Amino acid sequence: MHVARTVSELHALTSKKKHIGFVPTMGALHDGHLSLIHIAQQKSDMVVASIFVNKTQFAAHEDLATYPRQEQTDLELLEANGTDIVYLPSDELMYPDGFSTSIDIGPIGSWLEGQPRPHFFGGVCLIVTKLLMQVMPTIAVFGEKDYQQLLIIQKLVRELNIPTSIIGGPILRDADGLAMSSRNQYLNKKQRAIAPSLFACLTNLSNTIDLSNYHQQLTQHQAKLIEAGFDSVDYLELRDADTLEPINDTTEHYRLLGAARLDNTRLIDNLMCLGN
Ligand code: AMP
């Protein structure tokens, strides 16, 4: 496995390959990230993973300073899982002094995850655009764990004609259903025991939802999350799985999405919904 820290180091390693598969991450890797590496391996000649904790997608009060960083362990995990190149750009390379470009993806960036974090998707779109232009992959794999992000990146590459196919990877979960996340390590024992209720709630809704009258069910399940021990629920929504708009008569696919807080830790999850 090779490590590249600059664009020219990266290009020296990738220039002879035709089909590059790319997995961008913020590090603190777990099996969910590694499952994306395995998907990229099946669809490319060479896999590049990046680790970069992107400051433009954190708000001032969020956990940028304390976000888990474990470069050596991450490198070992990537190597053991057959990654060819790890790209580790610096803050100075990505955001040199005077940097002022921004990307606005439009209304979809202000829904759901964008509500409490208005700058979040602008930051995500900016860093992903930069990474895609630097790595120039044929495919890039993003987790369905961040479902809104996946749809937004697909929209971004379509609208900017970036020649990369964006592939979604399924959510990897712990045995009790909790979606794996780098932030799960913030949870104490009591919170960790409460956390799987978010997935249980989505599963229960998916099995019982009445598409002609679901608002009350969503409200009831929000209350169940509080009963289970969550401190607050940011949203619990049923949306069009292709556009993330509220569902309407033309909706073909449905997605349940939720975000809830345990003290300062914010958990998100989502699930396909067949509907009744
Ligand atoms: P992050 O390091 O949190 O920015 O995540 C990097 C990539 O891994 C994103 O595309 C995430 O959606 C994806 N990811 C995070 N958690 C999981 C999971 N539990 N299962 C599958 N993919 C995941």
If you had to describe this structure to a student in words, what would you say it looks like?
Helices cover 34% and strands 20% of the residues. The chain has nine helices and nine strands. A hairpin with a 2-residue loop joins strand 8 and strand 9. Helix 5 (120-135) crosses helix 6 (147-159) and helix 8 packs antiparallel against helix 9. The model has no long low-confidence stretch (mean pLDDT 97). Adenosine monophosphate binds next to helix 2 and strand 5.
> End-to-end span in angstroms?
49 Å
Kindly state the number of beta strands: 9
Number of domains: 2
Q: Tell me the structural class.
A: alpha/beta
Question: What is the CATH domain class of the largest domain?
Answer: Alpha Beta
Average residue-wise pLDDT: 97
Strand order of the largest sheet: 1-4-3-2-5-6
Output the radius of gyration: 19 Å
Residue windows where pLDDT falls under 50 for at least 5 positions: none
Which hetero compounds are present in the coordinates? adenosine monophosphate
So, the CATH homologous superfamily of the largest domain? HUPs
What form results from the Cα inertia axes? globular
CATH architecture of the largest domain: 3-Layer(aba) Sandwich
Q: What is the makeup of the main sheet?
A: 6 strands, parallel
Percent of residues in beta strands:
15-25%
Please trace the helix and strand order, writing H or E for each element. EHEHEHEHHEHEHHHEEE
Oligomer: single chain
Gist of the model:
The chain is an alpha/beta fold. The chain has helices at 7-14, 31-42, 71-80, 91-94, 120-135, 147-159, 189-194, 197-208, 215-228, and strands at 2-4, 20-25, 46-51, 85-87, 139-143, 165-169, 232-240, 254-262, 265-273. It has 2 domains: 2-169, Rossmann fold (3-Layer(aba) Sandwich); 182-273, Pantoate--beta-alanine Ligase, Chain: A,domain 2 (2-Layer Sandwich), CATH 3.30.1300.
